[in-house]
């Protein structure tokens, strides 16, 4: 590194320590050959984000001629444009073409966004829907997890369909200007419904249902402008339908997870879906620009989702473990592949998570 | 590296050169700190897959004590178990727990699978659907691209709905046992339809439509057992609906791409959708285990998709460029984020690609 670049880094040190988002940089700096994984592990062990930023600025100066321009271009690629501009006197970074940029959502704020968890456990007698034992385990896990991932967590338990609706609308109406993303988790019974964009419906405790499509669209660009261009994530732990045993028919050699079977329940409806009963035929007219949305389903539309009365649902248990192990280093889509891989391996395809998205960038959680 | 490990590598050299799938390894070897990106670039420049494998085995021996066990565990993580077993005498690799494995689909065969491209350009007079000028450009690009990516490409032009149906069924009925994946590309007009799993329909040249859900499900685990557990990829360049100008309403400051506007057409229907007209109400009963499927839509359900009469569609042009630049190093989901990012940036959210998937692993194309 040239002496002038080193001095520029030193002069910018304070702002870098304050503002630098390190998490999205590791992958880029690895791929550009500036650091090895061992070196990055070492920097990550420095402590908090600020400590890591300080260490990164120090170590960078020992990494050869390419280190400075590679760092500046990584800042550009991760949309840290102010910091890139601060350092750009020190090199002539080549103009990046749109396709050259590895697109990454940047989470700068703390908290990075709201996380609303709706946890439906007890359903009204008339609803024919059973107690969702184990759901509180899921809920507590996710509250803890998403707090660690810098979300402001809001939890609601046992809501009727209309209350769910109100809760979501109220969240969508908040001002998210000072936040970088938004997350909604629904833990409930569900069923399949035919829709234009996002499939499935979830149940209120009164047995009335609300379409996932409707939930998602409260947060789109036109209904929730302060989240425009920001990632909106939805995690749905609910049944996609009543096709419980299909996986076994197809893969009859798949072992049943005997150890759990005594405690296993499904989030399916115990009766047939009322076919022909369509939700929100007018939803089409109000569908607006649907970008930056990811909906992760615990199970694929049309299939059941399994829950252990003591340990909680397969999906949430796996999601929580994967986030624990990999949120500091991997992007959300790769982590969801890990979840799908692990959940589907339980009794081979008995449950198959799915994911529908209109994301434009990689999403890395913010880790403390 | 210990001398015994070096000798074992030398003894296994012939099989490694013949069988080693190098593409999925780069990322892992980078992250494990065995090679820097520069070193990997150098190995990739060695030439064909075989040449790269040979170079990798040579260079590995110079990379320190961790190189051998890291290489063996990378073989395990990429499901190259035979090769891992071949080398496992040389180290005691720790038993990996399911969540520790980075799941990756392995493409070993050459060709790796069929790629069927259905290219509808001319529509019958009664259909009210216009000539899709520029679609042949798309088709030729993708034929060339997917041949380079080791697919056996089959192309069909101007098919009626029933012919599309027959073509897909005939592809699904083939024996894919000796192949590792399957790819279907549809270039046509499209419209939105309400469905349980995958949204949208595409048009035959006779103006009759066929649901994307139906297309996808010909290839699922029960209807096409020889593709069970293997990735099935669908790329749909067609309209998701007639909501052409919504993006502008939402982001009224977005610039129109004037240079193109004279040649721009949409793959939308020029008239209102026939609401209430539902496809395949019986599809539900026949939906089977829906794993390992990815459907990439040129545009989000409900929205139009843009095509330039001379350069072809925005989506295919971008997809082809991204595959050209990144297929050798990045997995499909990250590349699709790049496509979404670039396409949505054309006139900001005028067109928003989307992706629905039940993949369980990362997908890396096989490069020659």
TrEMBL record, chains A, B:
Enzyme class: hydrolase
All residue ranges annotated as the CARD domain in the record: 1-90
One BP term from GO: apoptotic process
Catalytic activity: Strict requirement for an Asp residue at position P1 and with a marked preference for His at position P2. It has a preferred cleavage sequence of Leu-Gly-His-Asp-|-Xaa
Key words, A-Z: Apoptosis, Hydrolase, Phosphoprotein, Protease, Thiol protease, Ubl conjugation, Zymogen
EC numbers, comma separated: 3.4.22.62
Domain named Caspase family p20: residues: 111-243
GO MF assignments: cysteine-type endopeptidase activity
Gene3D superfamilies: 3.40.50.1460, Death Domain, Fas (1.10.533.10)
Record protein name field: Caspase-9
